[in-house]
């Protein structure tokens, strides 16, 4: 009898370990998705950001500004909207009011669900949504760089390098912004 109880308890502990490992992987995916979503919303909060993000969402998901605004009216951030559209897009029929409503109902509950749980209930994988939201984030970042006239990454560091060059050389025009700046000594 003791041996039977030991076997049952061992099986239970093993199944808990397997389930917690699977849950931890899902949590990492959700954290990644939340991080990307937050970045999109942060970008939207900048000058001209909402316009750039709205345009990107329209292109990425083939939706209208009215569809985006309907979700904004429900107090969703732009990053969350990109997740909703991405999940709805993968359902039969694509991004329809019915599919958007289904995603929103699962997310907002009751009970409220994480994005991983929502995807699982819809019989979807979260990975493709993460990739799509990352792409939206990347592309809005590029667009915002063009809007600011500085670009992202290499262009911005090149501009900083040119400004430093101007400091050493004594008052050269700043590259990128087009404004003249006197950085040299005695100016």
Give a brief rundown of this model:
With 187 residues, the protein is mainly α. Helix content is 71%, strand content 0%.
Structure characterization notes:
This protein is mainly alpha-helical. The protein has a domain at 29-150. Helix content is 71%, strand content 0%. It contains eight helices and no strands.
Structural class given helices, strands, pairing?
Answer: mainly alpha
Through-space gap between termini: 92 Å
**Beta-strand residue fraction:** under 5%
Helix count equals 8
Mean pLDDT: 76
Shape: globular
Number of strands: 0
Using only C-alpha atoms, the radius of gyration works out to 24 Å
Biggest β-sheet description: none
| Helix share, percent | over 70%
* SSE sequence, one letter per element: HHHHHHHH
Low-pLDDT sequence parts: 16-25, 150-187
Task: Name a few traits of the molecule.
187 residues, mainly alpha, 71% helix, disordered C terminus
Helix and strand arrangement:
Layout: H1 2-44, H2 49-61, H3 65-72, H4 78-89, H5 97-108, H6 115-121, H7 127-148, H8 154-169
Helix pairs in contact: 1-2, 1-4, 1-7, 2-4, 2-7, 4-5, 4-7
């Amino acid at each position: 009898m003791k041996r039977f109880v030991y076997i049952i308890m061992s099986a239970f502990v093993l199944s808990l370990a397997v389930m917690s490992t699977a849950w931890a992987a899902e949590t990492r995916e959700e954290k990644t998705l939340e991080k990307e979503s937050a970045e999109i919303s942060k970008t939207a909060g900048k000058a001209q950001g909402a316009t750039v993000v709205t345009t990107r969402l329209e292109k990425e998901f083939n939706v209208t500004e009215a569809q985006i605004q309907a979700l904004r009216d429900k107090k969703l951030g732009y990053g969350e909207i990109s997740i909703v559209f991405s999940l709805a897009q993968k359902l039969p029929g694509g991004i329809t009011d019915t599919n958007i409503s289904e995603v929103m109902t699962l997310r907002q509950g009751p009970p409220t669900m994480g994005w991983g749980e929502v995807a699982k209930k819809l019989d979807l994988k979260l990975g493709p949504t993460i990739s799509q939201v990352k792409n939206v984030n990347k592309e809005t970042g590029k667009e915002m760089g063009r809007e600011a006239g500085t670009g992202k990454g290499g262009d911005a560091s090149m501009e900083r390098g040119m400004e430093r060059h101007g400091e050493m050389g004594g008052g050269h025009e700043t590259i990128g912004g087009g404004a003249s700046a006197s950085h040299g000594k005695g100016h």
